[in-house]
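Our consortium's second objective concerns turning raw sequence data into structural hypotheses that experimental partners can test. To show how far this objective has progressed, the report includes one record in full. It was chosen at random from the queue rather than selected for favorable results. The single chain below, 260 residues long, was entered without modification.
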Amino acid sequence: MKQYWLELIDNAQLAPGMVLQTYHEPEIAAAAHPGQFANIRPSEASDPLLRRPFSICTVDRAAGRFTVLIKVIGPGTRLLAALRAGTTVDMLAPLGKPFEWAGARRLMLVGGGVGVAPMLFLAREIRDAAPLPRPGIIFCYGARTAAEFVLLDQIEPLVDRLVLSTNDGSRGEQGLVTEAAERLFAPDLSIFTCGPNVMMDDLLRRMRVAGLEGQVSLENQMGCGIGACQGCVVPTRHGYIRICCDGPVLPTTMFERIKF
C-alpha cells in the first residue's frame, strides 16, 4: 500500500448516480487483486474529512491503468462523481485482502449494486489465469431495475452463465438475486459475493440451508483503510475484526449473519 496523487483519466457515467473512474498508475495495476480497494479523499478541503473506500473494478496491467466504480450516496461520493478528467486525486491503494479462488472447481459470483465491481475483476482474473482448466463461472447480478445494470458488456464474455434479476422484472428474472442464485446451487459450487449487507445476509442464509460456503467481500465505512481508526470493526464468530485490513474478503464460515 502506498499513497498516490493520481490524475483522473476518465470519469464515465454508466447509469444515473454511477460512474466509472479510470486512473493510470502501473504500480497499482500490477499489485491489485480482486477484492482489494482504493481509499480516496473526496476533496482537499476538511469537509468531508474522511476517505471513501471503493473496490478496484478492473486493471489493465499492460497499460498501467485501473478503474473504480462509484455510486453517489452522500456528499463525499457526490464530490468524487463530479470530478473532471485531469483532476489530481489523493488515493491509498491497493488495500485489504483479496479473494482466493485457487482450487475451486466451479464458482458462483453474486453481486448487487457497486458489489459488481470486484465480481467483474474476479471473473476477469480467473479467465486470464493459467494453467487450464479454469473453473466454470456462474455470475448472478441483481438490481432494482434494468437501468441500474452496468458493465454487462464486460461481464458476459467472461462467464459461462450470466443470470440477471430485477426487483421490478424490467430485465431478467423478477425477484431477488439471491432467489435466482439459490435455484442454481449445486454441491460443487464455491460462492463468492459482494453487495448490500441485506443481500449478502440473505444469500448466506440460503447457502447454509444448502450446506455451501464461500467468501464474502464486506462493505463498511473505512476512514483510514489501514486499521488505525477502528471505524470499520464488525463482529464475527471469532471476535471483532477490522474490515479494512483483516478483510474486506473473508470466508463465510466466520459469520452467523452479515448484519451490522
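The partners drew two points from this record. The radius of gyration is 17 Å. Helices lie at 26-31, 75-81, 116-128, 152-155, 177-182, 197-210, 243-246. Both points have been shared with the crystallography group to help prioritize constructs.
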